[in-house]
Amino acid sequence: MQTDYTIIGGGVIGLSIAYELLKKNFSVTIFNVTGPTTASLAAGGMLGGQNEFSEPSPLFDLAIESRAQHSVLATELDALTGIDVELIPSGLLKVATQPSDMPSLTQQYQFLTTQPATPVLWRKANEVEPLMSDLGQGIHITGDHQVKARQLTKALTKAVQLLGGTIIAEHVRKINTATLTTDNGHYHYQHLIVAAGAWSKQLVPQLPMYPVKGECMMLRVQRAPRTTIFAADGCYIVPKKNNEVLIGATSYPHQSDAGVTAGGIQSLLTRAIAMMPSLKHAQIIETWCGVRPQTIDELPIIGAISPHIYCCTGHYRNGILLSAITGKLVSEALIGDVNAQQRLAPFSPYRFI
Known about the structure:
Elements: E1 5-8, H1 12-23, E2 28-31, H2 39-42, H3 60-81, E3 92-95, H4 102-112, E4 120-124, H5 125-128, E5 137-141, H6 149-162, E6 166-168, E7 172-175, E8 179-182, E9 185-188, E10 191-194, H7 200-203, E11 209-220, E12 228-231, E13 236-239, E14 244-248, E15 252-253, H8 262-275, E16 283-295, E17 301-306, E18 309-313, H9 319-334, H10 338-344
Parallel strand pairs: 1-2, 1-10, 2-6, 3-12, 10-18
Antiparallel strand pairs: 3-5, 4-5, 7-8, 8-9, 11-14, 11-15, 11-16, 12-13, 13-14, 17-18
């Protein structure tokens, strides 16, 4: 197999790396088999560059930069593929649904006001979003917008193919120094990138990471909220196009099965309706689950583990948000860009040694 870069994983992280490498005129082959729990297809699509942070993190600046890149990427992908990723400038409202969550919410607001990013506001929740219950004050993050994860994945897939990338629908079962093994045979590679999300550990067992299953659902409503609502307890309500509303997400660490439970859906509906009572009249369109890759220190793993094998995984629930900057920096780091390598250094696999 004559290709410059071989990528295992065709979610938004693997696709974004492939897309950037192809734009640099490298040849790319992706091995990917889409499953029912593929995180990129299951995600809420929130670009939570500020929502995800309540204390200093090496990810913060990258998250803010990546959030801004998504508007450029959306235009670029639409022009190339004709696919709308449905970037909606909804902003985000973070609320406490119980008194015990208010101290952490207040602390996050205080942290965010000290950071050089889009201003955040401390506002009465149902004044920002009239469909909300009276939950008191919340953090209005005006710059945290959202896309439709499935559309982004679809657009990146088509873009990779239009730019000459090859996608092989085979499960990679094993990797060695210069070859990878699928159910159909062996393939040689020059440079290998493992970007298989929660399944990366099956190929690289030493990675300190684990799967986290999460359930979501889509509703159709008469009147959709104009703002994404994110509760401090992890439940979120994301307005999509065509009067659709995505509700997520449960969280089950160390689980990776594809089953959606009645208890999980009940929990989501109970919490969502408490925040937005009009949802009780909504029609349930679909339920699903995804499996996210989490690491033991809650930071991604990005970097070489050998001269010819590079890992890029562990983005947890920020894969959509971080996909744009990850594709850009990883593609640059792979070809020797020192600045990109330095920016990715905090996420090196060697931090665990």
